[in-house]
Design a protein that fits this description.
Layout (H helix, E strand, L loop, with lengths): L5 E9 L4 E3 H5 L6 H8 L3 E3 L7 H16 L8 E5 L10 H9 L5 E4 L5 H15 L5 E7 L19 E9 L5 E9 L7 E2 L11 H5 L6 E2 L1 H22 L9 E4 L4 H11 L10 H4 L6 H11 L8 E8 L3 E8 L19
Parallel strand pairs: 4-5, 4-6, 11-12
Antiparallel strand pairs: 1-7, 2-3, 6-7, 8-13, 9-10, 12-13
Bound molecules: coenzyme A.
Length: about 350
């Protein structure tokens, strides 16, 4: 079989217009801009306006990605959506997104929290490698503000809404996914979870009164897990790709907390300028975090054709996922100025 790596040929993003600053949050919960910046590095995040849904955000990002790739919805063979904040519990978000894009291909959703998009990328890569599909849209989208308890200062300050998408296609060169690691430690599930609203604890007045339909987190345990996995996963995937961490042109870490990234950078002995950071603008956008950072890294010229990036995500599960990827000829060769999604409709 002629195995081909999957390379990125298109990219796009969408973030809601509405900005929620740390000062805005300090009017809602007992916190300050100084505390949030010092403990997380986050300055502001985007939150949905009335017209933003998981579907509309994903569709806007996908239109940009397809435009850059020079493709229409009819060209897409598979849509993989990483999401844990669906518009409805049934069907899964991928079906709504497929329909709104006007695509007729299969569409599947991967719910793996903040690790979801790397899981989705690796899943898409397998279909490209086997030759089953030639053109795959890999989307990370999260409207996580709906699951935040805006009376809990330990969680509501961290997260924001957003979406990003890439198109992957078979590479004619050595560009593409070079290695990956996927992981799950379900024994730590209750360190980051939503206790109510599922089948174990269905939605009821009691669930609502006790605010169990919102995210609960043991921040310190998640912090330790994140530092450990960012470090070990980056080491593992670079070794597997036949290189060392210092050979990477850019590291794209999950944008959860600047202190997590700085601690991992110290233990990996890497300078901070090797790490792409945009969490100050968006906070933690969960499954959208890595693709949003990847898209901005490409748009800002931090990644060019031939460059190799190491991406590592971690989050609820607890789960983690990493991939090393070489950028193909398209990256850096296209004027990446985003076109308004509306212009394509
Ligand atoms: C949430 C997090 C920022 C808290 O920072 P921390 O340094 O661990 O803080 P602690 O939980 O030890 O709390 C220290 C104090 O700050 C307080 N505090 C918590 N959130 C606060 C806020 N937003 N503003 C002001 N004070 C806050 C706590 O109540 C505590 O007060 P106390 O000492 O009087 O009890 C940090 O644990 C973290 O980022 N963890 C990882 C979370 C994450 O990334 N999750 C997503 C992964 S995908």
């Amino acid at each position: 079989m002629n195995m081909r790596r999957a390379e990125i040929t298109g990219w796009g993003k969408y973030v809601p217009e509405k900005v929620l600053t740390n000062d805005d949050l300090s009017k809602i919960v007992d916190t300050t801009d100084e505390w949030i910046v010092a403990r997380t590095g986050i300055k502001e995040r985007r939150v949905r306006s009335a017209t933003d849904t998981t579907t509309t955000m994903a569709v806007a990002a996908s239109h940009d990605a397809m435009r850059v790739a020079g493709l229409t919805a009819a060209d897409i063979d598979l849509i993989v959506v990483a999401n844990s904040s669906p518009d409805y519990l049934l069907p899964a978000p991928a079906n709504f997104i497929q329909h709104e894009l006007g695509a007729t291909c299969p569409a599947l959703t991967i719910a793996a929290g903040c690790s979801g998009w790397v899981y989705a990328l690796v899943t898409g890569d397998q279909f490209i490698q086997t030759g089953a599909y030639k053109c795959i849209l890999v989307i990370g989208v999260e409207l996580i503000s709906y699951a935040l308890d805006y009376t809990d200062r330990g969680t509501c300050i961290l997260f924001g809404d957003g979406a990003a998408a890439v198109v992957i296609q078979p590479s004619q060169t050595d560009a593409g996914v070079m290695s990956f690691e996927l992981g799950s430690d379900g024994g730590q599930a209750y360190n980051l979870w939503v206790p109510g609203g599922g089948t174990a604890n269905p939605l009821s007045q009691k669930v609502i009164d006790q605010r169990e339909h919102y995210i609960r987190m043991n921040g310190q345990e998640v912090f330790k897990f994140a530092v450990r996995k960012l470090t070990s996963c980056l080491n593992n995937i670079t070794t597997q790709a036949g290189m060392s961490v210092s050979d990477l042109d850019l590291v794209i870490p999950h944008q959860a907390n600047l202190r997590i990234i700085e601690t991992a950078a110290r233990s990996l002995n890497l300078p901070m300028d090797k790490f792409f950071v945009n969490l100050h603008k968006y906070g933690n956008t969960s499954a959208a975090s890595i693709p949003l950072a990847l898209v901005e890294a490409i748009e800002e010229g931090r990644l060019k054709a031939g460059d190799v990036t190491g991406m590592v995500a971690f989050g609820s599960g607890l789960s983690w996922a990493g991939a090393v990827m070489r950028m193909g000829a398209k990256v850096g060769a296209v004027n990446a100025a985003p076109v308004e999604a509306a212009a394509l409709l």
